[in-house]
């Protein structure tokens, strides 16, 4: 696909304002039906929180949206591009969609500054001086500019996760996906990472966040989705979702975590 075509699709996405469109999507691992008839539309600037029991398919769903996993039925359109086998499309998705995992996934042998400048220099073709300036700006934003020359192993989990978030912000992504970003952290570090995510939400970033931090969901989510056994069982605005969950499975889940 040529750049012009990519630009054409970007223009389309911007005008329609739909950033993620998952339509009747089904996925199997062998004979195991892991995602069942998933429909999900996320508009520019919307924040969705996904919760549900372990094994319900939350990670698989957001990995499909980031094209880290393929799917067998239905469509996934991200930033105007239909996910499929076209490798150039995949490059585009990986550039425009940031994904923060439970375990930070920083490069351990690179300093924090090197971790943050690698993508902008090599993928975005940004001049090195500008990449460093951008990296420092985002390290300020996540409140650890003094850690720029350290290695990931010299930092706390909360700091590493803030670096992981800053690393994607340096790429100026259109969408940020988070897969249980605080579940590997000690309790006292959870808030510092959630604070960064709330600030990010306030900038208007389009976000899909898998988390069981329900206070966070109440603060930022436009919609909360409950998944169980590969189904979207229930979805609603946080006030309705938490105060009046409709389905028995949702009620049971919420009674266990709240
Ligand atoms: P969640 O993130 O909600 O805990 P996952 O998306 O990780 O759930 O997993 C959903 C289901 O798919 C689980 O039953 C899990 O064991 C299964 N699964 C996940 N990854 C694979 C894989 N690569 N191959 C086979 N089964 C998998
Ligand atoms: Mg998971």
TrEMBL record:
Keywords: ATP-binding, Nucleotide-binding, Transport. InterPro entries: AAA+_ATPase, ABC_ATPase_HisP-typ, ABC_transporter-like_ATP-bd, ABC_transporter-like_CS, MetN_ABC_transporter-like, P-loop_NTPase. Residues 20-254 form the ABC transporter domain. Coiled coil: none annotated. GO terms for molecular function: ABC-type amino acid transporter activity; ATP binding; ATP hydrolysis activity. PROSITE patterns: ABC_TRANSPORTER_1, ABC_TRANSPORTER_2. Belongs to the ABC transporter superfamily. PANTHER family: AMINO ACID IMPORT ATP-BINDING PROTEIN, PHOSPHONATES IMPORT ATP-BINDING PROTEIN PHNC. This is Amino acid ABC transporter ATP-binding protein. It comes from Parasedimentitalea psychrophila.
